[in-house]
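About this split. The held-out portion is used to measure sequence recovery: a designer receives only the structure tokens and must propose an amino acid at every position. Recovery is the fraction of positions where the proposal matches the reference. Here is one held-out target exactly as it appears in the evaluation file.
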């Protein structure tokens, strides 16, 4: 495949590794990762992982910076209205902790960070669904510096986006794939309230499903492995290559990072020779069958196979014996104490994972088992009879000593430095420390004048167990020559005085100012609109759908499908670059025909509607609006109404309604989309899972997308103070089989 770019020789992109635990962070750095991404216990899309305490995160950030590496903190879940004060506290704490960037999904978090905690650098998560140049325009206006692109883009589409923006771009190169676009999936949430958008995904896509044409794992993609595409990705000018796996163990992180590091650093003439070695290293990570994901059109067509097991790892055998304290099987792979295994029920439901700490071969205690030997593994977890035993990880190094040796977090001092020809002045902006200055006699530099970067690097060397450099502001009123020896002497004198005067614990949080501003602003927030006495409902319909009885309603249709009866045009949720102009043209045609209401389902649409801000613009699923800060941010782009996110329970919808500056709409009736994918799904029509839950899967030829719907129609009662939205695009009136999704329950 040939990708055209404007580049010359490209430097290596950043290699970004997952760190679901402190041990994984050390393994990643040891293997050569340039950066890691990791999360705290809350507001993190991998809450099932070990994750980090704030104290341990501070230690890892300091350790990374000593190595010249970076740490990106994942604050990438959707948040409810009731959680906004806690999010503000978290943002204030992180502004002091100093990660190199925050990875975010929720528009409300973006708003809060940008307005009240401006020191935080923001990266847009792949869950925000940016996939075309119009979306990148919106991302830039949001204030993010990097975008993690939609994972279902081809290399050609990435190349087109790369040419359209100066924002940093990040793409996934290895690991498990989500079946749904952007990971914006309601599948797990529908089957019990465990939202993937909240870090609680139960992975129903990995289960077996049953249809008229047979059964299989219809939604379980193969894993991504792009080692052979690394030269093309480098040539595209992508800034960061991301490895998935925050639920993985250190062995996976070390082996995977090591393989990609070796290939990225390989001279061009040795790249091909090292591919085999890299494949061998990656095979020890015990993933699913590899694929090129969606990077080529052909790979997207073969990404899912109905007979591909949903579990990851190397298949070792099936459970043939159950005991109170363990299970027995005949292994087809070598197995060692310390290896990780998962016992997967053949239904495809998630099975228990465990570390092999005790095992017997031929009734004798053993440290290893060879292929063909009968093994008894001791465990205290319930195991399904006939379950498939997968090896999901090898025994890994113990990083407990290295973690214990990390120095405790140091207090960060924020410096404001001013340099003139006659003196240097330093103020500490977050500590009670007297004004510090020294007289100088500097000459104009004939070449290489001292820079702010040089000064920051020098003063970062605090030589203190209690204090470290935090933020650094610098003002230089000319171009001066400052000898390195004199600069070092100034640095030592400054830090010696700090250590002699300043006591540990005397710093104050500058972020407290932003936190207080948020609290005051939030208390004052209230709806800025007055609802009419009689609220006209909106009904979304197919072009030739039957009218909803005698109801007085706004009729909504797709932007390509409107007719003389239409009042509202719905923009598509996914629009690859090659189709962007056709959607732009359809918007113009709709406006010219008298349409004054537009419904957006993805953020890219905000750019297309820039010139139509005088019209009504409604944010609607799958674009999630969960809190008043997200609504406030959308209002900045001309949005006039927001549909409450489908996963919100009634209490959270009411809280959003009572705070939102935008009128709120409720998805009251219809068959909501649980999953959208560009992958070819080897099934269509009605499906059921092992528990009897019914689903409908449909392929849309025009868009090339496959959508999964629940069999039951979503139906909830009217709620005072909100508009009603009825979705009849894939449903009909008076259905006898209905449900309420999470509305009457809770959202985990």
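Reference sequence for scoring:
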């Amino acid at each position: 495949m040939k990708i055209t770019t404007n580049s010359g020789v490209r430097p290596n992109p950043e290699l970004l590794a997952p760190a679901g635990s402190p041990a994984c962070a050390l393994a990643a750095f040891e293997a050569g990762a340039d950066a890691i991404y990791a999360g705290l216990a809350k507001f993190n899309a991998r809450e099932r992982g070990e994750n980090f305490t704030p104290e341990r995160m501070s230690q890892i950030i300091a350790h990374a910076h000593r190595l010249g590496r970076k740490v990106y903190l994942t604050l990438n879940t959707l948040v409810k209205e009731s959680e906004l004060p806690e999010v503000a506290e978290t943002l204030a704490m992180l502004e002091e902790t100093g990660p190199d960037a925050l990875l975010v999904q929720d528009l409300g978090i973006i708003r809060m960070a940008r307005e009240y905690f401006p020191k935080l650098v923001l990266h847009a998560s792949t869950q925000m669904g940016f996939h075309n140049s119009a979306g990148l325009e919106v991302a830039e206006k949001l204030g993010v510096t990097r975008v993690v692109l939609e994972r279902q883009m081809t290399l050609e589409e990435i190349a087109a986006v790369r040419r359209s923006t100066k924002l940093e771009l990040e793409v996934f190169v290895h690991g498990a794939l989500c079946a749904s676009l952007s990971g914006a999936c309601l599948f797990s949430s529908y089957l019990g309230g465990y939202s993937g958008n909240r870090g609680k995904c139960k992975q129903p896509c990995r289960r077996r499903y049953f249809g008229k044409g047979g059964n299989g794992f219809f939604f379980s993609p193969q894993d991504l492995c792009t080692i052979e595409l690394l030269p093309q990705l480098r040539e595209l000018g992508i800034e960061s290559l991301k490895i998935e796996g925050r639920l993985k163990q250190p062995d996976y992180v070390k082996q995977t990072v090591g393989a990609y590091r070796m290939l990225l650093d390989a001279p061009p003439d040795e790249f091909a020779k090292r591919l085999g070695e890299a494949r061998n290293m990656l095979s020890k990570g015990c993933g699913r069958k590899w694929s090129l994901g969606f990077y080529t059109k052909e790979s997207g067509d073969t990404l899912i196979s109905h007979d591909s097991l949903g579990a990851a790892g190397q298949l070792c055998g099936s459970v043939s014996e159950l005991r109170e304290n363990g299970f027995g099987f005949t292994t087809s792979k070598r197995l060692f104490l310390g290896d990780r295994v998962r016992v997967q029920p053949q239904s495809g439901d998630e099975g228990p994972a465990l570390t092999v700490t005790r095992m017997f071969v031929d009734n004798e205690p053993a440290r290893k088992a060879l292929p063909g030997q009968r093994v008894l593994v001791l465990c205290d977890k319930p195991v399904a009879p006939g379950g498939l035993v997968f090896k999901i990880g090898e025994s890994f190094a113990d990083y407990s000593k290295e973690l214990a040796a990390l120095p405790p977090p140091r207090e960060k001092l924020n410096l404001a430095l001013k340099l003139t020809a006659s003196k240097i002045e330093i103020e500490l902006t977050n500590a009670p420390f007297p004004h510090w200055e020294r007289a100088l006699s500097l000459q104009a530099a004939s070449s290489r004048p001292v820079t702010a970067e040089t000064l920051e690097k020098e003063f970062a060397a605090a030589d203190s167990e209690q204090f470290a450099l935090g933020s650094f502001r610098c003002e230089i009123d000319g171009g001066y020559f400052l000898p390195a020896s004199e600069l070092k002497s100034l640095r030592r004198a400054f830090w010696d005085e700090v250590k002699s005067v300043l006591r540990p614990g005397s710093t104050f949080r500058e972020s407290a100012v932003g936190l207080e501003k948020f609290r005051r602003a939030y208390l004052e927030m209230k709806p800025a609109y007055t609802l009419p006495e009689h609220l006209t409902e909106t009904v979304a319909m197919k072009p030739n759908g039957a009218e909803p009885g005698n109801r007085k309603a706004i009729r909504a249709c797709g932007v390509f499908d409107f007719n003389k009866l239409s009042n509202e045009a719905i923009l598509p949720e996914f629009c690859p670059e090659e189709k962007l102009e056709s959607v732009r043209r359809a918007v113009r045609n709709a406006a010219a025909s008298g349409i004054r209401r537009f419904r957006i389902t993805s953020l890219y649409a905000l750019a297309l509607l820039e010139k139509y801000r005088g019209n009504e613009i409604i944010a609607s699923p799958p674009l999630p609006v969960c809190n008043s800060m997200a609504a406030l941010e959308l209002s900045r782009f001309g949005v006039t109404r927001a549909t409450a996110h489908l996963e919100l329970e009634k209490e959270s919808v009411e809280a959003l309604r009572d705070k939102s500056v935008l009128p709120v709409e409720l998805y009251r009736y219809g068959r909501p989309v649980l999953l959208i994918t560009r992958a070819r799904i080897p099934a269509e029509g009605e499906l059921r899972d092992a528990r009897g839950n019914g689903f409908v899967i449909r392929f849309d030829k025009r868009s090339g997308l496959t959508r999964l719907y629940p069999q039951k129609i979503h139906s909830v009662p009217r709620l005072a103070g909100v508009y009603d939205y009825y979705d009849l695009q894939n449903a009909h009136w008076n259905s006898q089989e209905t449900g309420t999704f999470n509305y009457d329950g809770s959202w985990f």
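Annotator remark: Residues 1-8 have pLDDT under 50 and may be disordered.
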